[in-house]
Amino acid sequence: MKLKELLNGIDYIKIEGVQNRDIEAMYYDSREVTPDSLFFCIKGLTVDGHDFAPQAVAKGAKVLVLERDVEVGEDITKVFVPDTKTAMAYMAKNFYRNPTQNINFIGVTGTNGKTTVTYLVKSILEKAGHKVGVIGTISNMIGNRKIPSKYTTPESLELQKLLREMADENVDSVIMEVSSHSLALGRVEGCEYDIGVFTNLSQDHLDFHVNMEEYRDAKAKLFTQSKLAIINEDDKNGRWIKKGVPTKVCTYGIYRDADIYARELEITERGVAFHLHTPKGSIPINLGIPGIFSIYNGLAAASICYNMGISLEIIAQGLQEIKGVDGRFELLDTGTDYSVILDYAHTPDGLENILKTAQGFAKGRIITLFGCGGDRDHGKRPIMGEIAGKYSDLCIITSDNPRSEDPMDIIRDIVPGVEKTGCSYIIIENRREAIEYALAHAQRDDIVILAGKGHETYQILKDKTIPFDEKQIVAEILGREHV
Fold first, then answer.
1. In principle, which of 58, 69, 252, 345 could form an S-S bond with 350, CB 3.0–4.6 Å?
2. β-strand partners of 412
3. For residues 355 and 360, what is the distance between their CA atoms, to the nearest angstrom?
4. Is-contact 283 313, C-beta < 8 A?
């Protein structure tokens, strides 16, 4: 593609050098550069891409997009822009020929529920005959083909490339998780969503955002890029965001007046049932994932599909066919007289949701095994400890993804919260040993909750990342081939 085409609609300051070069590829990592390519000098949180411009040129880059001048060879075109991140997002969209222009494009943001909502919507839309793409935490999907996912929301260059791949494979609807990081860092700049969805907001990512207000404001950016906003009316931050939405709004909820709402709720260990009410009628819904949060996720998915013109009958069928989402309140088949539940809960609200759900059907004790991630929001650690202690009979405090931190430092931050509740607890730093302890001490009718890792199949330590698939680990401990 010609550089001139890439720069269509881009706010640039000036161009130095040959202005109409052919661009074969685009990169922001100098290690990946190939001949006759373009390199974006991105100023990141820890490194500055401008410092790597010479390496990119040495590997064959002919065009640099930059914010400040750098010394390189004379035969290099320089495009100066106010912000290289923003320029990359729009130039990627041009390079991949605006892939979503003929696609139903849906973005879901919120602290909890994003992944589940995307899978619920996929099930409904496929029931209605659509070919669906999913972009999110567990994996990216084109139909049933899975593509590994590095981030909840990919960087803009990878995102537009993936969307083009989906468009070329005749995907007509894409539903993606939109993280607060991606909104704050410009990864989804230039994306135009047909529908934007807000699920909820609770404490998380305060290692990145200054405070909850900044975190909320980052989420709200999605709705400046959406033709229709679907908002959880029961969430106070949702109501705040709704006030500033410049386009049409559809609300959903349980306890407050909303456009789409649930009544006649039934929550059991097998799942949830409720009557879905919409402006065009109502229908009974059965969803095989327990917990009040499942009703909210079901409402969000139903609201999306309702606004896409999907019938209530298809919505009900699509929701009923979902038997669970990987690592989200997932009941493992252990063959024991106690239950083992795997959940990704790594926020205070997420942990409280699963524990309150378990309390609703527990016949024995609730044994909660959990930790907190290293290099992340320190403030939520004692809060999660207090929540675990409040709703559990025994807490096993262990390591999660400690990253560069000492696991015991993280555990020491958690302990005061647990101690505040008086709940019995034990510290076992090694997570596999902690799981072995939990299973060895579980009794008939107990519920063992393994919280924090969910779908992840690895553990991030200070100096390496190791395989750590909790489903497989539980199977090995119990002497079973697969759980």
1. 345
2. none
3. 9
4. yes
Number of Cβ within a 10 Å radius of residue 268: 10
What is the chain's length? 483
Lowest-pLDDT range of 110-114, 214-218, 368-372:
214-218
The CATH number of the structural domain formed by 104-320 is 3.40.1190.10
How many angstroms separate the CA atoms of 409 and 394, rounded? Answer: 21
- Whether the pLDDT of residue 78 is over 50: the answer is yes
Pure H helices in 328-379: 348-361
DSSP state of 326: T
Nearest to 187 by CA among 142, 146, 155: 155
Instruction: Give the DSSP H or E segment for 412.
Output: helix 407-421
Q: Are 180 and 324 in contact (CB under 8 A)?
A: no
Task: Kindly report, residue by residue over 394-418, the tens digit of the pLDDT.
Answer: 999 999 999 999 999 999 999 999 9
Q: Where are the domains of the chain?
A: 3-95, 104-320, 330-478
**Residue in 340, 370, 297 with CA at minimum distance from that of residue 124:** 297
Q: pLDDT at residue 481 above 70?
A: no
Q: For 330-478, CATH number?
A: 3.90.190.20
Look at the domain 3-95 and name its fold: 3.40.1390
